[in-house]
Amino acid sequence: MRSQGHQLKPQDVLLLLKIVSEDNVLWNQKPMAEALGMSQSEVSESVGRSKYARLLDPKGKSVYKMALMEFLQYGLRYVFPVKPGPVVRGIPTAHSTSPLKDQIQSKEHYVWPYGKGTIRGHSILPLYPSAPEAALKDGKLHALLALVDAMRVGRAREKELAVDELKKRLGLGE
Questions:
Q1: Hey, how many other C-beta atoms are within 10 angstroms of the C-beta on 1?
Q2: How high is the pLDDT of residue 77?
Q3: Distance (Å, whole) CA 3 – CA 7
Q4: Exposed, middle or buried: residue 63 (CB in 10 Å: 0-12, 13-18, 19+)?
Q5: Per-block average pLDDT, block size 10, for the chain (174 residues)?
Q6: Which residues lie below 8 Å from residue 104, measured CB to CB, with a gap of 6+?
Q7: How far is CA 19 from CA 15, 84, 154, in A?
Q8: 92: Cβ–Cβ under 8 A, 6 or more apart, which residues?
Q9: Cβ atoms within 10 A of the Cβ of 72, count?
């Protein structure tokens, strides 16, 4: 039963993407927790789970980008599935914002529900409740989360474009 403490949680993906967006192996847990709207203990536990899953190096500072990409590409939509909900005001995500907005023409928008949001669209629950707020503070993180949402909710073309773009942003070629 003890292995249940090692199962990934949605906030682990949020933390890993934030580490990638910061691109700084000297990051510290307290400022990271504040930037993500998480407690320091949540960040600490997330680091532990991510190290156990071999998505973070043993020191817990560097993301294994190839492993993260494999997980995002092949497992995320099964582990943390999402279905679009009713039309609400919110923050654009998936193909409704950069970097996919210019590549995919759609009248259908996806948003994270947020009272001060800029557009209306079908609601998508973010990976973690504080993700929209964190994304508003960090444009790179917002782009990464939008790409991840495109892989979670998109059709084949959107998923393919999101995978290609995410590989570029992770420095994995393509």
A1: 4
A2: 92
A3: 7
A4: buried
A5: 73 97 92 96 96 95 96 94 94 92 87 91 95 94 96 90 95 77
A6: 95, 157, 158, 161
A7: 6, 27, 25
A8: 101, 109, 110, 111, 117, 118, 119, 121, 146
A9: 23
Mean pLDDT of the chain: 92
In eight-state DSSP terms, residue 113 is E
User: In the numeric block, which tokens belong to residue 106?
Assistant: 């759609």
The 10s digit of each residue's pLDDT in 29-69 is: 999 999 999 999 999 999 999 999 999 999 999 999 999 99
Residue 172 φ/ψ, nearest 5 degrees: -105, 20
Token representation of residue 128: 């973690």
Q: Per the structure block, which two tokens stand in for 70?
A: 């494999």
Let me know if 133 is exposed, middle or buried by CB neighbors in 10 A (0-12, 13-18, 19+): middle
Q: Compute CA distances 35 → 17, 49, 134, whole Å.
A: 12, 20, 6
Angle between helices 65-74 and 156-169 (to 10 degrees): 170
